[in-house]
Amino acid sequence: MINEEANTAVENKPETQEYFINMGPQHPSTHGVLRLMLTLDGEIIKKVEPHLGFIHRSIEKMCEKDSYQQIVHLTDRMDYLSCHMNNEAVCLCVEQGLQLEIPERVKVIRTIISELTRLSSHQLWWGVMGMDLGAITTFLYGFRDREMITDIFEETCGARLTMNYNVPGGLMFDIHPNFQKRTKDFITYFKKKLPEYDDLLSNNVIFTERTKGIGMLSKEDAISYGVTGPSGRASGFSCDVRKHFPYSAYDRVDFREIIYTEGDCYARYRARIDEMHESMKIIEQLIDNIPEGDYKAKTKAVIKLPEGEYYQRVETARGELGVYVVSDNKKSPYRLKFRSPGFSNLSALNIMAKGDKIADLVATMSTLDLVIPDIDR
Amino acid sequence: MNFNIYDFTGFVNSIKQWLNSVFPPAVADITGFVIIGICFLTFITLLGLSLVYIERKVCAFFQQRLGPMRVGFWGTAQTVADIIKLIFKEPLIAKGSDKFLFNLAAFIVIVAPFMAIAAVPFAKGLHVLDFDIGLFFITAVSSIGVTGILLAGWSSNNKYSLIGAMRSGAQIVSYELSVVLSLLTIIVLTGSLQLSAIIESQRDGWWIFKGNIPAIIAFFIFIIASTAESNRGPFDMAEAESELTAGFHTEYSGIKFAYFFLAEYINLFIIAAVGATVFFGGWMPLHIGNFEFFNKIMDFIPPIIWFFGKIAALIFLIMWFKWTFPRLRIDQLLTLEWKYLLPINLVNLLMMSVVALNGWHF
């Protein structure tokens, strides 16, 4: 806790001392085992130094021993809130390497489930965001609505969080007969509930005071730090992979890329709320038009990618996830690298939080929507 | 024994006479003190337990869940079980902390509301301390608690605790001004700080209705400021579990933690009691001027039920804030007090004086 040697006097203010505080690894608002070393002057933050590695499981190294089918399972454990998108990234990369023709049905189902995952991730984020700012009730509201999505997932593939629904070449099973009906029910339900989120939190004067003009991130900084996803788009950085490099069924749906130019916590908040509306729009366009056909393309039992390098990116709920595979024509990759959105987003925390107060750091971190296993891998 | 639910004066006096008839005068007085002390201890314990339970249930219903349900009927024994757990827990003292101050802090925090509650008028005749500066005594004594919070933060040898304590020191000292000024606004009308006199002055209607617009403004300021003074959400900066883990009581465990916990709820009760007494006529039933028939019906409900009913309503209001609003930031909190509430309050006090001088109140 106390780092005696680090205490240094501020030159022009002889009465006060800068001091260090360890936020984490066990702390309620780091949402996991992230350790932040804060240099403080009173309540003003001078510097934020993230220390990583508390939940490092060397997933990239493990991938070098595993087959491509097994790698998919490891990716759930990175950003567990957008597990389906993580799975999809690896599968798309393998399919790209094999130059496999994927049935249309698979593409559409993957897109629907991706968007459902994004919705559930943003719902959880919304609840936690309120909780970080002291409004504990939002947490329960977020979870109430998220529960319906996890129920759909449970019925579809038997798992609620780490789903592993994707396999290279398609899906593990076909969708459940109830899937379409339940998804449509959920969309009608959530369309009514989403305005409630605005009533409870977005339009609250305390909330807007706490978030507007806090944790500023300029467009230039967002680009140079590689801040992607809703956090980057709230700074005006057009970085939606779904728009710029469409994959699966995103080329055939109509949706808006949410861009805000303010770059503060409130813009990041709005970006996510608006993304929920867009996700529902995407699902509505696809849910009635799931093409008939196979749920999986024929693949060999042992997948060997031809020698070469492959890169595939997808838009997860947190930003751009890149999968970079170097193959030497063996059953497991020579090297596999994940470009995880959380890691890059966290790197910008210092410039965002500098000069703000401790309470603002919590708000800033919350709007970055960090998932610690995604940062450490 | 002439027990009368509408007026406890006779009942209290008969106990006093009985004590005087059995014991010599000095012993009778001491026995009386002890009886009162035991009554208060029991009352405060029950109050703490039930308020914790109520808070859990209210919070649960706001959050679309059930709250404690397993221990006892509808989870009523849950808080009892929790207190038993806290009593048997090891009292840990952090390394490098100032042991004397660390222990003292918990006691100061719990002693302050114990003293304040003595001056609360529960019903007609059910009033332990009724002297001419009653309201002043409550506000003065209940603010001793901040010393405990500051000491707790200082002695814990924990930076989170220290930040929490400093925040809460700044907060409580600032908001005390608003609380006292908003109460003064009503004192302008009553002309007395004695709580029984304040209640008596509301015989033909409560001040919130009689006091014209300034009284309503004063009530709103009182509710905001006293919520802040008691460190409850949305002003729970001192705890701020998402920023400071648990603020000033981070290092406390076992029964000493329970003291902090209990003190918070007794303070909540005192706030509601003061609010009810000054603005809503304390135990005085709802009377409308000379409307005899209506007043008679209202008088049928015993004063003690009026008193606790008003308190329950105010406590529910304060809980409602806590479970709806996000937390303010410390600088916003101080801005709210010094730049908005205090000037409004001063102007309001002036307005009330004008109203009182011209007799524009009802």
Could you please describe the fold and organization of this structure?
The complex is a heterodimer of chains A (377) and B (362). Chain A is α+β, with helices and mostly antiparallel strands. Chain A folds into 2 domains: 48 residues, no CATH class; 318 residues, Cytochrome-c3 Hydrogenase, chain B, CATH 1.10.645.10. Chain A contains 15 helices and 8 strands. In chain A, the strands form 3 sheets. Chain A has a 3-stranded antiparallel beta sheet. In chain A, strands 6-7-8 form a 3-stranded antiparallel beta sheet. A two-stranded antiparallel ribbon of chain A has the order 4-5. Chain A is globular. Chain B is mainly alpha-helical and 362 residues long. Chain B folds into 2 domains: 88 residues, no CATH class; 266 residues, no CATH class. Chain B has 15 helices and no strands. In chain B, helix 3 crosses helix 12 and helix 7 packs antiparallel against helix 10. Chain B is globular and about 65 Å long. At the A-B interface, helix 4, helix 5, helix 7 and helix 14 of A face helix 7, helix 11 and helix 15 of B.
